[in-house]
Amino acid sequence: MESLNNRMPAALAVVLIAWLLSGCATNPVTGGLDFVLMSEEQEIILGDQVHRDVLKRYDVYRDAELGDLVRRIGGELAAYSHRSELDYTFTVLDSPEVNAFATPGGYVYITRGIIAYMNNEEQLAGVLGHEIGHVTARHSVRQHSAQAIGSAAAGLLGAAVATTTGDRDAGQMVDLGLGQFGRALVSGYGRAHELEADRLGAQYLAEVGYDPEKMLGVVGILKDQEAFELRRAREEGRPPRVYHGLFATHPRNDERLKEVIRAADRYRVDNPRVTDPDAFLRMLDGLDFGDSARQGILRGNAFYHGPLDLFIRFPVGWQVTNNRERLLAIGPGQDQAMVLQLVPRGDAATPEGFLRRNFRNLRQGRPIGSHGYTAIADSQDRSGVVTMRVAAALHGDRVLILSGLGKNALPDRQVLETAGSIRRLESAERGIAAGHRIRLVRAKPGDTFAGLARRSPLGEFAEEQLRLLNGMFPEGEPAPGQLLKIIR
Fold first, then answer.
1. pLDDT(406) > 60
2. Strands of 384-395's sheet, edge to edge?
3. Which helix (H) or strand (E) covers residue 250, if one does?
4. What distance in Å separates the CA atoms of residue 168 and residue 155, rounded to the nearest whole number?
5. pLDDT tens digits for range 163-183
6. How far apart are CA 436 and CA 451, in angstroms?
7. Kind of pairing, strands 89-93 and 360-368?
8. Number of other residues whose CB lies within 10 A of the CB of residue 388
9. Distance of CA 361 to the CA centre of its chain
10. CA–CA separation, 466 vs 135, rounded Å?
11. Are strands 107-111 and 89-93 parallel, antiparallel or unpaired?
C-alpha cells in the first residue's frame, strides 16, 4: 500500500490549486479572472487602515487651493474610471519627496515635491490618472495576494518536503526558495502593472477631455529629475533620493509606453479642454520647496526649526534625515546612528530626572553645559535590552532626547558634541529657518538660467535645478515674457 507520506505532495498540490481557484475574482477593468485574497469590502477596510498610517508619517500640505485642484481633477478622472463607485480620497502630502502613490480602496497621494516640477494642469492629471489606474486594476490587492500565496506555498511545501524526506534542512531550502519566488513574482508585476496603469490613466484623461500624450511629458520630467539627483548624490557622496514608483520602469524613450498612451486616442472627446498653463503656475506661487519651515530645515548637517526656536548641528560626514517624528543621523561607516526626538516632559523637573524615569540602569551620568544631562542607559525593544548613549535637554514643556547607538561602539563623542550644539536660533538664522518657496517671475530679454542661478539661494546646483523646475533640463533657456518658477 502506498504510504501517506508518499501521497502528500500530490494532495498538497490539490489543496493549493483549490486555494488558488477560490481566490479568483473578476478584474473590474478586463472582466477576466485575477487571483485576489480579499473582497472589495476588505480592500476598503485595509485602505482605511493604511490611510491612517500614511497620515502618521506625513502631514497634509496646508494649501486649500492646491488641495481643491487635486481633488477636483482626481474626482473628474475617477468618475470615468472602471471603479467609479469607490469613494476616492485625494491628498497632497507635505513632503519634498518626488512621489505619488495609491493604496487599496481608492486612496491617492501626491507630494508637493513632485507638484513643484509640473508646469501645466495636464501633467498633474497624468500623475493622478496613472494612480487611479493602479486602484481600478486592483494592483495593490493583487500584489498583496501574490505575497500571501508565495509565503503560504513556501511554508506548506517546505513542510511537505521535510515530512516526506525526513530532511528538515531540505524543507527550509524549499521554504527559502519559494519565498524568493514569491518576491520575484511581485517585483515582476512592476512593468506590466505600470503599463496597465498608464493605459488606464491615458484613457481617463482622454475621456475627461485632457490630451493623454501629456503623460509623456511627466515621464520626461521624472527621468530628468532622476538623472540630476543621481549625479548630485555622487558629487555630494551620499545615497541618491530617487523615486522608484511612478513611471520608474520606463526607459527614457519608451516605445511601448508611447503605444499604450496613443491607444487612448479613440477615447478623445469632440471638445477637448483648453487649459491655461500660466494659471496653473500661479497656483504654485508660494509652494514650499525642499524642507518646510513647519518640519524644520536641514542645511548640510545643521538643523533649523523656527516654530521650535531650535538649532542643532550633527557631525560632519553623518547622513541626516528629517521626518515628521524624528531626526535620524547615520554615521559614515553605517554602523552608528543618532536619533533626536521631542517628547512630552511630564512632571520631570530636570533632564536627569527625565532620563532616570524613562531609561534603565543609568550610569556614567554627568551634566552637559547648563541645559542638559547625559549618561549610558539601557532600553528595552523587541530584540531585548539595547545599550545607548543618551542626552536630554529641557525645551519648554517638552524634552529633547538624543540617543546614540552603535553596532560595535557607541558614538559617545558624537552624541556629546551634537547635544552640546543645541541652542535657540540666532536672529540671522531665522531666515534660514523660514525655508525656500517657489516664486514666479516674467523672463526679460537676455535672461538666462545661469543669470537667474546667480541670484538664487539654491547654491551650487541652482542652474540645473531651475531648468528642472521649468521643464527645460538640461540646456533650455527662457523666452522673453515667459512665466518662470524661481526659488526664494
1. yes
2. 319-322, 327-330, 336-344, 398-406, 384-395, 372-381, 360-368
3. none
4. 12
5. 444 444 444 433 444 344 334
6. 19
7. unpaired
8. 21
9. 38
10. 34
11. parallel
Do 132 and 81 contact (CB within 8 A), yes or no?
Answer: yes
How many Cα atoms are found within 13 Å in the side-chain-facing hemisphere of 298?
17
What's the CA gap between 342 and 309, in Å, rounded? 13
Q: Do 292 and 94 form a contact (C-beta atoms < 8 A)? A: yes
Eight-class DSSP state of 60: B
Q: In what order do the strands lie in the sheet with 310-313?
A: 297-299, 302-305, 310-313
Residue type, 446: G
| pLDDT digits 0-9 by tens, 30-89 | 555 454 557 778 888 888 999 999 999 999 999 999 999 999 999 999 999 999 999 999
Confirm if 366 and 428 have CB atoms less than 8 A apart. Answer: no
Are 368 and 404 in contact by the 8 Å Cβ rule? The answer is: no
Q: Which residues of 391-430 are buried (b: 16+ CB within 10 A; e: fewer)?
A: bbbbbeeebbbbbbbbeeebbeebbbebbbebeebeeebe
Alpha-carbon span 304 to 311, nearest angstrom = 5
Quote the radius of gyration of the chain (alpha carbons, Å).
Answer: 27
Distance CA 220, CA 252 (A): 7
Identify the bridge partners of residue 368 per DSSP, sorted by sequence position.
372
**CA-CA distances (angstroms) from residue 192 to 78, 154, 250, 401, 472?**
21, 24, 11, 46, 30
Q: Please report the pLDDT score of residue 188 as a whole number.
A: 32
Contact predicate 435/297, CB 8 Å: yes
Instruction: Please state, in angstroms and rounded to a whole number, the distance separating the CA atoms of residues 373 and 49.
Output: 39
* Backbone conformation region of residue 483, classed left if phi is above 0, alpha if psi is from -120 to 50, else beta: beta
Residue 30 CB contacts under 8 Å (≥ 6 apart), including other chains: none
- CA angle in degrees (0–180, nearest 5) for 470-238-317: 130
Q: Which residue has the cell 500614511?
A: 54
